[in-house]
Amino acid sequence: MIETGETTMGKALATLLVAVMLTVGGGGIVRAGPLEDGLGAYKRGDYTTALRILRPLADQGSAEAQFWLGAMYEHGQGVAHDYREARHWVRLAAEQGNPLAQTFLGIAYGEGRGVIQDYREAIKWTRLAAEQGQAAAQLYLGFMYEEGIGVAQDYQRAYMWSDIAASKHGDDAVLRAINQRDRIAKHLTAAQVIQAQETARQCAKKLKNCD
After folding, report:
1. Fewest CB atoms less than 10 Å from the CB: which of 18, 121, 155, 181?
2. Contacts for 51 with CB less than 8 Å, ≥ 6 apart
3. Residue 186, Cβ neighbours under 10 Å: how many?
4. Sign of the Cα pseudo-torsion (103, 108, 114, 120, in order)
5. How many CA atoms, within 13 angstroms, populate the side-chain half-sphere of residue 192?
6. Cβ distance 95 to 67 under 8 Å?
7. Are residues 141 and 123 in contact, defined by beta-carbon separation less than 8 angstroms?
8. 74 near 65, Cβ under 8 Å?
9. Mean pLDDT, each 10-residue run in order, the chain (211 residues)
10. What is the dihedral of CA 82, 171, 21, 133, to 10 degrees?
11. Coil, helix or strand for 45?
12. What are the C-alpha distances in Å from 60 to residues 36, 87, 105, 202?
């Protein structure tokens, strides 16, 4: 049975990702051509055209097209709502390294959105996306450390990932990260906050092996 005990954080980030996807064009560099045409149709709400263009590209292995096709199944846009099909396409994109797909998949596992809840998988995919600089993934990873979900509770690591996300600019994930970081700081001493901030600065330079 698929669990559906979503947290408020998970619901908010799942919704946030849709807006992020529209802003950044699927998590990759979109060049002129069929993919751009397909994403343009999606943004206009012309899902019939988007589906006609994106499905062949997804079948050919385009991670961006796979991600967007998964998003369409996730939200029932131009196709019947189908979590299983959504997860199939999103996973294919995530396995190719698409950071938004990795974020989406990590949240899905963490919240039991269309899959059996699996915190180990949630941490795995969220960390991969966080290490590629995705603020939403960094925010969710910080939340999991704060709550001890899938990992040992660690307020300093929670602060670190939240602080890295908060250093970005211009979207709702950043505002949530600032609030989360400030909330976590209440569990730390002044010295621990300074140490976490320094770790965040060092980690933000490389975003590898931060934990």
Report:
1. 18
2. 69, 72, 78, 79
3. 8
4. positive
5. 13
6. no
7. yes
8. no
9. 48 55 46 85 94 97 96 94 93 96 93 90 95 91 94 96 85 82 95 94 80 69
10. -100
11. coil
12. 16, 18, 21, 39
Q: Using the 8-state DSSP alphabet, how is residue 77 labeled?
A: S
CA 21 – CA 60 distance, rounded (Å): 21
**One-letter amino acid of 189:** T
Enumerate residues 6+ apart whose C-beta is below 8 A from 83. Answer: 2, 73, 74, 113, 114, 115
**Cα–chain-centroid distance for residue 7?**
15
**Both tokens assigned to 178:** 């600032």
CA Rg value for the chain: 17
CA 147 to CA 77: how far, in whole Å? 34
Q: What span, in angstroms and rounded, lies between the C-alpha atoms of 21 and 95? A: 18
Q: How far apart are CA 140 and CA 146, in angstroms?
A: 10
Task: Name the amino acid, one letter, at 111.
Answer: E
pTM across the whole model = 0.82
